[in-house]
Specification:
This protein is an alpha+beta fold and 153 residues long. The chain has helices at 6-19, 50-57, 85-95, 103-113, 116-119, 128-145, and strands at 20-27, 38-47, 63-67, 77-82. The chain is built from six helices and four strands; from the N terminus they run H-E-E-H-E-E-H-H-H-H. Strands 1-2-4-3 form a four-stranded antiparallel β-sheet. Helix 3 (85-95) packs across helix 4 (103-113) and helix 4 packs antiparallel against helix 6.
Protein backbone atom coordinates (compact mmCIF):
# COMPACT_ATOMS: atom_id res chain seq x y z
CA UNK A 1 0.00 0.00 0.00
CA UNK A 2 1.39 3.38 -1.01
CA UNK A 3 1.40 6.25 1.46
CA UNK A 4 -0.76 9.00 -0.11
CA UNK A 5 0.90 12.37 -0.69
CA UNK A 6 -0.99 15.62 -0.19
CA UNK A 7 -1.36 15.81 -3.99
CA UNK A 8 -2.80 12.27 -4.01
CA UNK A 9 -5.29 13.24 -1.28
CA UNK A 10 -6.41 16.29 -3.27
CA UNK A 11 -6.79 14.21 -6.45
CA UNK A 12 -8.80 11.53 -4.63
CA UNK A 13 -11.00 14.24 -3.05
CA UNK A 14 -11.73 15.51 -6.55
CA UNK A 15 -12.66 12.03 -7.74
CA UNK A 16 -14.94 11.49 -4.75
CA UNK A 17 -16.50 14.94 -5.15
CA UNK A 18 -17.32 14.15 -8.78
CA UNK A 19 -17.85 10.40 -9.01
CA UNK A 20 -18.06 9.16 -5.44
CA UNK A 21 -20.49 8.63 -2.63
CA UNK A 22 -19.88 9.17 1.06
CA UNK A 23 -22.61 7.25 2.85
CA UNK A 24 -24.18 5.95 6.04
CA UNK A 25 -26.63 3.08 5.77
CA UNK A 26 -28.60 1.09 8.27
CA UNK A 27 -28.29 -2.70 8.05
CA UNK A 28 -30.15 -5.38 9.94
CA UNK A 29 -28.51 -8.79 9.93
CA UNK A 30 -30.79 -11.77 9.79
CA UNK A 31 -30.21 -14.09 12.72
CA UNK A 32 -28.05 -11.57 14.58
CA UNK A 33 -28.03 -11.92 18.35
CA UNK A 34 -28.86 -8.25 18.84
CA UNK A 35 -32.01 -6.55 17.64
CA UNK A 36 -30.46 -3.16 16.92
CA UNK A 37 -29.61 -2.52 13.27
CA UNK A 38 -26.01 -1.58 12.61
CA UNK A 39 -24.95 1.56 10.77
CA UNK A 40 -22.26 1.16 8.12
CA UNK A 41 -20.13 4.07 6.94
CA UNK A 42 -18.74 3.80 3.42
CA UNK A 43 -16.97 5.58 0.62
CA UNK A 44 -17.65 4.37 -2.89
CA UNK A 45 -16.44 5.43 -6.33
CA UNK A 46 -17.89 3.98 -9.54
CA UNK A 47 -16.14 4.82 -12.81
CA UNK A 48 -15.49 3.40 -16.24
CA UNK A 49 -11.79 4.30 -15.78
CA UNK A 50 -9.99 1.46 -14.00
CA UNK A 51 -6.84 3.53 -13.57
CA UNK A 52 -8.54 6.13 -11.36
CA UNK A 53 -10.25 3.48 -9.21
CA UNK A 54 -7.01 1.54 -8.83
CA UNK A 55 -5.18 4.76 -7.91
CA UNK A 56 -7.42 5.06 -4.85
CA UNK A 57 -7.13 1.34 -3.98
CA UNK A 58 -3.32 1.53 -4.07
CA UNK A 59 -3.44 4.15 -1.30
CA UNK A 60 -6.47 3.18 0.82
CA UNK A 61 -7.89 -0.16 1.85
CA UNK A 62 -11.09 -1.15 0.12
CA UNK A 63 -12.46 -3.56 -2.46
CA UNK A 64 -12.25 -3.05 -6.21
CA UNK A 65 -14.75 -4.84 -8.41
CA UNK A 66 -15.16 -4.95 -12.16
CA UNK A 67 -18.66 -5.19 -13.58
CA UNK A 68 -19.62 -5.76 -17.18
CA UNK A 69 -22.05 -3.31 -18.73
CA UNK A 70 -25.72 -4.24 -18.43
CA UNK A 71 -25.99 -4.66 -22.19
CA UNK A 72 -23.93 -3.97 -25.31
CA UNK A 73 -24.73 -0.24 -25.18
CA UNK A 74 -23.27 0.17 -21.66
CA UNK A 75 -19.58 0.30 -20.78
CA UNK A 76 -18.01 -1.89 -18.15
CA UNK A 77 -17.33 -0.10 -14.88
CA UNK A 78 -15.10 -0.39 -11.83
CA UNK A 79 -16.07 0.15 -8.20
CA UNK A 80 -13.90 1.05 -5.22
CA UNK A 81 -15.71 0.48 -1.93
CA UNK A 82 -14.34 1.09 1.57
CA UNK A 83 -16.60 0.12 4.47
CA UNK A 84 -14.26 -0.77 7.33
CA UNK A 85 -14.92 1.90 9.97
CA UNK A 86 -11.27 2.71 10.64
CA UNK A 87 -10.30 2.79 6.98
CA UNK A 88 -13.25 5.01 6.05
CA UNK A 89 -12.34 7.40 8.85
CA UNK A 90 -8.70 7.61 7.69
CA UNK A 91 -9.73 8.16 4.07
CA UNK A 92 -12.32 10.86 4.83
CA UNK A 93 -10.06 12.69 7.29
CA UNK A 94 -7.23 12.65 4.71
CA UNK A 95 -9.34 14.09 1.88
CA UNK A 96 -11.50 16.42 4.00
CA UNK A 97 -9.40 19.59 3.50
CA UNK A 98 -9.68 19.15 -0.28
CA UNK A 99 -13.40 18.36 -0.60
CA UNK A 100 -15.54 21.05 -2.23
CA UNK A 101 -18.87 19.34 -2.98
CA UNK A 102 -19.25 16.56 -0.41
CA UNK A 103 -18.11 18.44 2.69
CA UNK A 104 -21.49 18.13 4.42
CA UNK A 105 -21.60 14.36 3.76
CA UNK A 106 -18.10 14.10 5.23
CA UNK A 107 -19.23 16.10 8.28
CA UNK A 108 -22.18 13.76 8.91
CA UNK A 109 -20.02 10.68 8.45
CA UNK A 110 -17.30 11.99 10.78
CA UNK A 111 -19.93 12.96 13.38
CA UNK A 112 -20.97 9.32 13.42
CA UNK A 113 -17.48 7.80 13.28
CA UNK A 114 -15.91 10.02 15.93
CA UNK A 115 -18.73 9.71 18.49
CA UNK A 116 -18.18 6.68 20.75
CA UNK A 117 -21.74 7.13 22.02
CA UNK A 118 -23.21 6.79 18.51
CA UNK A 119 -21.05 3.87 17.45
CA UNK A 120 -22.19 1.81 20.41
CA UNK A 121 -21.15 -1.73 21.16
CA UNK A 122 -20.40 -4.23 18.45
CA UNK A 123 -22.96 -7.03 18.51
CA UNK A 124 -24.92 -5.46 21.35
CA UNK A 125 -28.23 -3.64 21.48
CA UNK A 126 -28.02 0.13 21.92
CA UNK A 127 -30.46 2.42 23.69
CA UNK A 128 -33.47 3.93 21.95
CA UNK A 129 -31.82 7.37 22.25
CA UNK A 130 -28.66 6.22 20.47
CA UNK A 131 -30.70 4.46 17.78
CA UNK A 132 -32.72 7.65 17.26
CA UNK A 133 -29.53 9.73 16.88
CA UNK A 134 -28.09 7.18 14.44
CA UNK A 135 -31.27 7.28 12.36
CA UNK A 136 -31.17 11.08 12.25
CA UNK A 137 -27.63 10.95 10.85
CA UNK A 138 -28.58 8.24 8.33
CA UNK A 139 -31.60 10.31 7.22
CA UNK A 140 -29.44 13.44 6.93
CA UNK A 141 -26.93 11.53 4.81
CA UNK A 142 -29.65 10.15 2.54
CA UNK A 143 -31.08 13.66 2.07
CA UNK A 144 -27.65 15.04 1.20
CA UNK A 145 -27.04 12.23 -1.29
CA UNK A 146 -30.34 12.67 -3.15
CA UNK A 147 -30.07 13.96 -6.68
CA UNK A 148 -30.94 17.61 -6.94
CA UNK A 149 -29.10 18.87 -3.89
CA UNK A 150 -31.57 18.74 -1.01
CA UNK A 151 -30.80 21.33 1.66
CA UNK A 152 -31.01 20.35 5.33
CA UNK A 153 -32.34 22.85 7.85
Amino acid sequence: MLQPTETDKAYIAGIIDGEGCIGLNEHRRLGARCHTPSVVASVQVVMTDAEAVNFIAERYKGRVRHSAGRDITRKAYFTFNASDRREVEVLVKDIYPYLKIKVRQADVLLDYLTSPKLRGGRGHDVSDEVMFLRRVLVADMHALNQRGGVTLS
